[in-house]
Amino acid sequence: ALERGFGDPPSAARPCTLWMWMNGNVTADGITRDLEAMRRVGLGGALIFNVGEYIPQGPVDYGTARWRELMKHAVREAGRLGLELAMHNCPGWSSSGGPWITPEMSMQQLVWTETKITGAPSGPIHLTRPFSRLNYYRDIAVLAFPSLPGEERSFVEALTGITNGQGAAVDGKLVTDGDLTTSVTAGPDNPLVFAFAEPFEARAVTVFYTSGGGTIGFTLEASNDGVAYRTVARLTPASPRAIEDASLVGTFEPVRARFYRLTPARKRGVCEVRLHGAPRIPGWNYKANFAYRAAREEGPPAEVADEFTIDPAKVVDLTRLMDAGGELRWTAPAGAWTILRIGYTPRGQRNIAAPDAGIGLECDKMSRAATRYHFERGLGGLLDELGPLVGKTFTGLEVDSYEVGMQNWTAGFGKEFKARNGYDLKRYLPAMVGYYVGSAAVSERFLWDVRRTQAELVADDYYGELRELCHKRRLRLYVEPYGAGPGPYDELQIGGRADV
């Protein structure tokens, strides 16, 4: 039997191939010919990808009745020839999404606005709503804390104007209003110059820019006269490419200057610039999973002066005092206060390399409900029509390379965080947007807990839930690792919780 099996291996022992259905250019005759050729050369089956990749659109739209008929034809023909078929779990090759995913069920990210007040303003305090995508936004919390030294008022209030490299005025609102959907074009020969009437003391900077075309570095310089500049910081991306809106942060020794010049390494749209009077956590954008950075060893965090650290006991939860219109009714104690309105909105990420008819939002990777929604809306109808062929000839689904960037929030994240870590995250939330809370060490431990919780949710509620859904349908789940190294949620690999 062994000798016969070696000469004519069973299907399970034969290699399979990737089988690309190119942007709806598929026919029943072509399917039969392909499968017969696979059998003729000794393959055991194929993994179907429905992809686009700049191929002219064909007559068969993904997900339609005609497409399902051709899928059934392929599975029946594979059964006739003794082959097995599997399919990528959505259109494209990354990652799990399609036209059926609603903004609510898509990948989410934390967003926020800051409001500075001094004393007790008369009447309600209007809190600007953070920017949103796809007309979907939900509040998380409204938090207030005593303003840090140098941040009693926003640097925007101290600005006298922004110009480009040729001295022409730039609409400053486009890079200071917190809206990541608007931008100003800048480049090596066209930097942004921020001017102040009096010297502004800065200790940190945050820059958001459009990531199309890959990540780039920026140089921040300072000048007292607007002519002679000195380098303050070089902002270097930690990853050679970014799918999400890219952000760079830098913390440096205090600098006082009337002019600050921001120069990108290449021409790019600059969405937001924030100069901070107090230091920020180095790399907080990566540590809170706003952007991707490969896992790497780091030493203990550098100490920061107590005056630049938020005391968590002094963080005031004002969430219930704000109405739906953003009006906050709060009698503030004496002194300067910073109020954060924190919420979440969709990332807006769509599946990669999908055929034209299959392009849509990526599902929320930290939500069982969103994973189930994707599975049933995107695959359930096809599996129902395949009937008894599922688990017999049609044997598996695959999640291919993860190329859809980061998300760092989901509905119910606070509840999950408390259940998994044993404490409420609310008073520490300012650390997710760069503030030191408690101390440098406490802030780092909190952000580690945030990343670990996110990684566990991705493992449990995305990969784990897909595994369970496949198991119920008698299917195997295949997962391709992310490139050659750790994935974007570093602790996912450390924990090994995605048992697939």
Output the helix-strand order.
HEHEHEEEEEHEHEEEEEEHEEEEHEHHEH
Envelope shape: elongated
Count of helical stretches:
10
Low-confidence stretches: 483-500
What distance lies between the first and last C-alpha atoms, to the nearest angstrom? 31 Å
State the helical fraction. Answer: 10-25%
- Total count of strands: 20
**Category by helix and strand content:** alpha+beta
Computed CA radius of gyration, to the nearest angstrom: 26 Å
Could you report the average pLDDT, rounded to the nearest whole number? 92
Beta-strand content bin: 25-35%
* Largest sheet report: 7 strands, antiparallel
Structure keywords:
seven-stranded antiparallel sheet, five-stranded parallel sheet, elongated, 500 residues, disordered C terminus, single chain, alpha+beta
Notes on the protein architecture:
This protein is α+β, with helices and mostly antiparallel strands and 500 residues long. The chain has helices spanning 2-7, 28-40, 65-81, 155-158, 173-176, 284-287, 368-386, 413-421, 440-472, 490-495, and strands spanning 16-22, 45-51, 84-88, 97-98, 108-118, 125-126, 138-146, 159-163, 184-186, 192-209, 218-223, 230-235, 246-264, 268-276, 316-317, 327-328, 336-346, 361-362, 394-399, 476-479. Strand 11 and strand 12 form a beta hairpin. Helix 2 (28-40) packs parallel to helix 3 (65-81) and helix 7 packs parallel to helix 9 (440-472). The chain is elongated. The model is unreliable at 483-500 (pLDDT under 50).
